[in-house]
């Protein structure tokens, strides 16, 4: 395992880009392989002419309702195309999408050319056209309905606790916390009564799909803003997460605590910290990339594969020009070298001192590593650690805290344009 001790600094220069290219891992099969957030076409072994469905989802995989449809399609193995759209909180919505969907809503889904919006309506239509998810009742069944109500009840309690600024000394914060915990106990009890690790006795079903997006975000946001671990507090919910994390379909859509903690505020209006010492410490751990900290055992039950550091290296290498271009570091040559220092660490475990004045730029990038858009959860963790350890060697300089009213710092346009040019060059 790679050391996270930044005290033993190598005197050697970082590897050049050409040398780093020898560490790149093969590209995954995005079309027929495991669930992949970068995919634009999913065939599951079918012929391209079998594609009847197009999913319109957000570029960054932040939208919970998009995740619900995405997970359904992956579990059902329905061939589909993906078209990615900008959410308003991180950029301007594409004009072409307004022509497809005048409301601009996400997600949207086209079946045989017919556009459908609203995630539950989309699922009902998918059930009607393709049948329900294998071994699952359909969304509108009497068996699933109580779980749909329970999920909405949990969502409401979560919003009340996370997103309301309660008046001090009135007990509002503690009442909201207890209300959420009471509903979470209902969810835990429902799982405990099931004969399977999932909500239904028969096993994985659409009930699990509808719970997934927001309970994932609850686990992240309550840890970060309230110092409360959902998985540590409810054993059956934790067991459910563990079973979900055995499914490649879920792992391909799963985000992490850092991404959700900072993508939620502009979507929810606000996320309110309880301000306790324990919560502030947890925020520091998560924002700092968990460097020298044990506090991530309830983020995921999975263990990193041997190549996650090289996965992170490969993903950064692919976008290196854009990452240097959009970084606020004024001296682009210095930041290019700092980035090579980070990737040298990922490739070899060797810590290389970066150029002076690049710490802020590395922490700017550390704060904008996005899971699963950029890479898997464990690869994202490795990259944040590498960025923080390298930045420490240049001092404590920090970029201003991530904005909460919008995330326009994450505008996808430079990366989308670069991808388009690469594809055009390959065709030419």
What do these coordinates show?
- It holds the Pfam family GST_N_2.
- One of its GO terms (cellular component) is cytoplasm.
- This is GST N-terminal domain-containing protein.
- With 428 residues, this protein is an alpha/beta fold.
- The chain folds into 3 domains: 113 residues, no CATH class; 90 residues, Glutaredoxin (3-Layer(aba) Sandwich), CATH 3.40.30.10; 143 residues, Up-down Bundle (Glutathione S-transferase Yfyf (Class Pi), Chain A, domain 2).
- Helix content is 50%, strand content 6%.
- It contains 18 helices and 7 strands.
- The strands form 2 sheets. A 5-stranded mixed β-sheet has the order 2-4-3-5-6, covered by helices on one side.
- β5 and β6 form a beta hairpin.
- α7 packs across α12, α13 packs across α17 and α16 packs antiparallel against α17.
- The longest helix is centred in the middle third of the chain and has 22 residues.
- The two termini are 43 Å apart.
